[in-house]
Amino acid sequence: MALLKLEAFKQVSNSSNSSGAGSSPASLSSYSATAITFNQSYSSSLYDEIYGKQDDVKYTNAYDVAFDLQKNGNGLYDRRVFDSIYAVNDLTKNQQWRVDMRGDTNDDGVIDENDELESTALVDAIAKSFDSELDLYIEAQLQNIIDTYGPSCNYNLRAIFGSPNSPATLELAKLGIRADGVGDHDNWQNRTYSFSLVNMEGTEDMTDEEILAHVYSDDAEILQDAQGNKGSIIFADCLTADGVAQGAETNLSSILDQMGYECVSKADFMGNEEDYADLLVNIKAGLDNNLYAGSDSTINTLYGETITMAQAVCAVYDINGDAPGQWGTGNRTFEQTKSMVDKLGDSLYKGGCATKGEAINYGIENFKKDFSIDNYDTNNDGIISEEEAKAFEEDLEKAAGEIKENMKKKDKEAKEAKETETKQAEVKEEKENTKNQQEMFNDAITEAQKAVNETIENGEDINEVVDKIAKKYDLDKNEILKELDL
């Protein structure tokens, strides 16, 4: 999208206005949204100026995008933007990984449960979800959470979010952000997540438990901006589907924006980084004063049936970790996944234990070689000739190429290390699951033998008691009978 013009955001006034002198901020708007509309009349032309323009397509290669973002972002992006960047181009071609999103299919101007869900390619769904300034705020908070808790667990999503009340989940909930597992309901997987802002009016005095219950309630209302664009983004473990929040994955909106996808992104602030900071401050002020209106939409309105992110990040390991278009042929439906999630209950949760640690300070130090064109004035005549300028450009491009190749090498090494770690973890978990299943089977046999002995002594039929124990442990009755001493 076009670069945001933020002068209007800085004109937040506490003086009297059309709402009347002395009005409190919370009473200013019944629909509203951005600091553009704080104490001001809504201007459709201003909105069109901000959201209506499309960027020229700059890049066809994601690696060039990441290099430009990190080199010229003036702190907006760090080295992690390169992590798994090599996989972005493949993602743009992936039509198998899909997300159900509700569109205005009945053309009544409102997206609600009367509209149909539309199966959308993941890359398009991610871009489509970034359509509001609220989404920039959500993304910033998610990136902060991942940067805060990630270093303690190698950025593992289950470690960060794998419990309904993990510290990371609670921090987001206090900001009004809920996290859910979303996907294609006919071919479900557990690696795609939404982060959504909900209406927090009236929660000021709630306990942590009450806030979590409010944010994750079935009727929690998603907030929207002045034009009805919802505060909800899609984030996916989709580039290197390894359960880890890769840097390119957490910055995918910016990368896609620079590759020509129409979306609101942090990349729109390249060269105007202070305006980005101002924008986040103004959005936070609007949220604190309840100036964003509810949309009458819940998470299920936007994406159909969902599970929570805590359930999804754990289900990757215990139920279904497919990455459509990359690997996996599970073809498990949402209903099948939800049934297994419900069956496991609280035993599903094996994460959420990540702790706060010092975020790794990658910085933007990778392009430090100092090139000054004045150093190429070889004859010291104060004039840069065409040949001298060409030499400067060639050396600059060569240095950039060396840095890019070094990044690719590091990225490959990191990818291989993570794949090895993931395989080792899967083997260990498989062994643990096998051990647990054997222990459960042994318990069932012990209990069944005791019950059968009593039944035989009483001269009763053993089938009923074995049936009961088989159902209790979810085992085949015949398998139990084989082990009994009858």
Q: Estimate the strand proportion.
A: 5-15%
What is the structural class?
alpha+beta
Shape call: globular
Low-confidence stretches: 1-50, 359-371
How many DSSP H or I helices? 17
Computed over alpha carbons, the radius of gyration is 27 Å
Approximate helicity band: 40-55%
First and last CA, distance: 75 Å
Biggest β-sheet strands, sense, barrel: 4 strands, antiparallel
Which whole number gives the mean pLDDT? 80
The spatial strand order of the largest sheet comes to 6-4-3-8
Q: How would you spell out the order of helices and strands?
A: HHHEEHHHHEEHEEHHHEHEHHHHH
Number of strands: 8
Summarize, please.
This protein is of the alpha+beta class and 486 residues long.
Provide keyphrases for this structure.
486 residues, alpha+beta, four-stranded antiparallel beta sheet, two-stranded antiparallel sheet, 8 strands, disordered N terminus
Protein architecture, described:
- It contains 17 helices and eight strands.
- A four-stranded antiparallel sheet has the order 6-4-3-8.
- It is 44% helix and 7% strand.
- The chain has 486 residues and is α+β, with helices and mostly antiparallel strands.
- The model is unreliable at 1-50 and 359-371 (pLDDT under 50).
